[in-house]
Amino acid sequence: METDFRVEVVRDGIADVIYFCGTIDAKAEQIMNGLSGQVRGPDVRCDFSGTGRINSMGIAFLLRFLKSLRDRKNVRVSLCGLNQMNAMLFKMTGIYLLATPEQ
Amino acid sequence: MTTNPTILALLRDEADLNIWQNDLAAIPGIVTVVISDPSPPSVQRACAAVPMSRFILLSGRFYPAEAPVVLEVIRKLHPAAEILLVSPAAAPFPAVSPILKDGIRNLIVVPALSPSDEERRRKSPLSIAISSLADDARERISTCLRPGTVAREFLLESSDQKETLIAHLVEAVGGSTAEAEFLRQRAALIADEMIENALYGAPRDQRGSQLFRKGEPRTILPGERIMFRFGFDGENLAMELADGWGSLHPVEVVDHFSRNREREGLPPTEGGLGLFLIWRFIDHLHISISPGRETVVSGHVRLRTPEDLSDAPGFHITTWRACA
Predict the structure, then answer these.
(1) Pair B57, B177 in one domain
(2) What is the ipTM of this complex?
(3) What's the pTM?
(4) Which CATH number fits the domain that encloses residue A33?
(5) What pLDDT sits at residue B2?
(6) Would you say residue B278 lies in a domain?
(7) Which one, B90, B203, B218, B268, has least CB within 10 Å?
């Protein structure tokens, strides 16, 4: 799996699908800070199937991003493609308080 | 030839004994005494059970009220003994400042053990903690590994080496099972956080402000030393990261664990969860602090499924000089 971080935002009907690829750590700051502006909603689907490691700084960036979406009205965020490790990490760190994992 | 036991465990009451008996049963030669009445004569009688103790496990239940009496007697009768304060992970963590002021250098918070779990009893966190103090400190990661397992060393020269080092670590863990993959994922995250803490969290100026910002590329300063070691024995991966700063404080560590395990809402979005994540994903965490000189963060991860990961993990903090 690639380690360099990148995101791709694809519009699908009324949803924005965001593909998170690579390692999410301190180096992801610039991309993560600009991500909120690329999202229109009302549905946002975050796909982590191409994501490798997410460290504590990556979690902090994701929390900031998801909080910024929560502050907009009528935006629904779902999460998919999580491996077991990242699913546990999201549960431990409160990400699931801001977005709903897809079954 | 018989060998005198050198470890004495002092517990507060029968309830305490129930908590600790499985852990203590895994330590050869240990003598356990319950001190129901912590008056000086009864503590003296308890201390006489092992005349030349090298280690004394003292229940956190003696804190804060009865600790002064108990410690005075222990120090009089066992001046050379290393006192290890033990507390169960399911309980609130002990207040660290009074322990440090009393000159206790080791705090061991122990996760609960299942009485039927033979494997975990064999390598119980309490016996690992004692072994890590009894063995040569340079070989502390071998405590968790099968004899003969070779440890590999990497001396970091710049932040650019983080990914290379993690790749070596992940490659060292063979196997295609779900447990092996979960171990590789945990190991990669733990190593990442250990290295980030050493590169960006540990270096501080005289006022305690961080010298470097996370994410900025940096090279190791002249005289600075960051050493990563690891070994894998087919079941356990042991890791150790030593920085040459010694800027972590035990009170800060325990507050960090306590705050984050009890949190119900969102954590801060500025980061700072690194040590908490290491603690939650590692199987036995040992933080050894020589203030102003060195911090060593070490531990091991064992092959297991995500469901087997403890919700109330333990930890061991050793402070080698006054930190009170």
Answers:
(1) no
(2) 0.94
(3) 0.92
(4) 3.30.750.24
(5) 40
(6) yes
(7) B268
Which of B74, B103, B132 is the last residue before a domain boundary?
B132
Do residues B159 and B124 both lie within one domain? no
- Domain membership of residue B141 (yes or no) is no
B10 contact partners, CB below 8 Å, separation of at least 6: B33, B35, B43, B46, B47, B56, B57, B58, B59, B62, B70, B74
Boundaries of domain holding A29:
6-101
Average pLDDT, chain B: 90
DSSP code per residue over A78-91: EEE---HHHHHHHH
Whole-angstrom Cα distance, residue B180 to residue B196? 24
Q: CA geometry: angle at B14 spanning B8 and B18, to 5°?
A: 80
pLDDT digit string (tens) for B61-103?
999 999 999 999 999 999 999 999 999 999 999 999 999 999 9
Query: In this predicted structure, what is the pLDDT of residue B141?
Result: 81
What pLDDT sits at residue B116? 53
Residue A35 token pair? 């991500």
Residue B13 belongs to domain spanning: 7-132
Mutate which of B159, B183, B192, B280 to test chain A, going by most A C-beta atoms within 10 A?
B192
CB-CB under 8 Å, A56 with B274? yes
- How many structural domains comprise chain B? 2
Same domain, B185 and B105: no
Give tens-digit pLDDT for A42-62: 999 999 999 999 999 999 999
Domain shared by B166 and B79, yes or no: no
Q: In A, what residues contact B, Cβ < 8 A?
A: 3, 23, 25-27, 29, 52-57, 59-60, 63-64, 67, 83-85, 88-89, 92-94, 97-98
pLDDT band at A77 (very low <50, low <70, confident <90, very high): very high
